[in-house]
Amino acid sequence: MTHKTLFSKESPVFIIAEMSANHDRDFDRAVDIIKAAAEAGADAIKLQTYTPDTITMDCDSDLFTIKGTIWEGRTLYDLYGEAYTPWEWHGPLKKVADDLGLVFFSTPFDFTAVDFLEELDVPCHKIASFEMVDIPLIRKVASTGKPVIMSTGMATEEEIEEAVAAFRDAGGTELALLKCTSAYPAPPEEMNLRTIPYLAERFNVTAGLSDHTLGIEIPIAAVAAGAQVIEKHFCLNRGEDGPDTSFSLEPAEFKAMVEGVRKVEKALGTIHFSVTSKQKDSTRFRRSLFVVRDMEAGETFTPETVRSIRPGDGLHTRHYEEVLGRQATRALKKGEPLDWDMVKHNDNKH
């Protein structure tokens, strides 16, 4: 089966709205988030497909207690029990997204989730930063033959190399690697956006950004740095109390980000040196050689009689030294653009 190319170095930037847990276990809110993402200009809506039991285990030992993040003190099982998206929602939500022209896909966290998403025929899959070291899961996703987006938060270059090799060895072909800083929220000084073009060249993949910073500046800057995929958490109201709302964009902010990305995308253009259509009218204001005071026939051109000034209707300035010391072929008026028929010559320099 041939799958649609969603991202490449030649395609428009693929912009993903990450719903994550921002539905707050309310199906209607999930629908509203998808509708708002479409209105804000997203290309795709992404879910996360797991249950507390497929991603961790119910254990309150110190090893399973979260430390050093905004979820301090909670157990993994408790957090994921609040955050997961019921699997029975996926089909109806996919239909909502399909009807709105949004790409609908998800991050599977175990084999059962991959199989479930394949039954829904999602067009691509995502590997989260924390699962980048789950080589069997990467192979499973790669074996679907569908495009895969992989976040690289916390990964060393060697770990990325191992994950990419596992993906390709399992038959994967279309891969995007996203620079990601797995801090919530992530500080701008830890983003290191120059890694994005390095990922693209080093691993011969499409590269992008999975962003957890506050605001819209970082993803826009990432596009200028070469990102072809942007993923950003999306919510209806950041003031609501949810696991991910504090580092998510509201609809108006997301729309502003999309508009900024599209402007930067246009501005990047191609390597180009010729005059554009908008510049043509400005070329006449370049400098050229003009007669700057009245001259008699036979009078010698000097720095007092000919100068390089705006506009650009006279001889090119490269001929200035050639003209100096020669004589005028006729009487000339101040303000005339210089031309070779005004200059006596005895050689072929011009």
From TrEMBL:
Source taxonomy: Bacteria, Pseudomonadati, Thermodesulfobacteriota, Desulfovibrionia, Desulfovibrionales
Pfam families: NeuB, SAF
InterPro entries tied to this protein: AFP_Neu5c_C_sf, Aldolase_TIM, PseI-like, PseI/NeuA/B-like_N, Pseudaminic_synth_PseI, SAF, SAF_AFP_Neu5Ac, SAF_PseI/NeuA/NeuB
Record's protein name: Sialic acid synthase
PROSITE patterns: AFP_LIKE
Domain AFP-like: 288-346
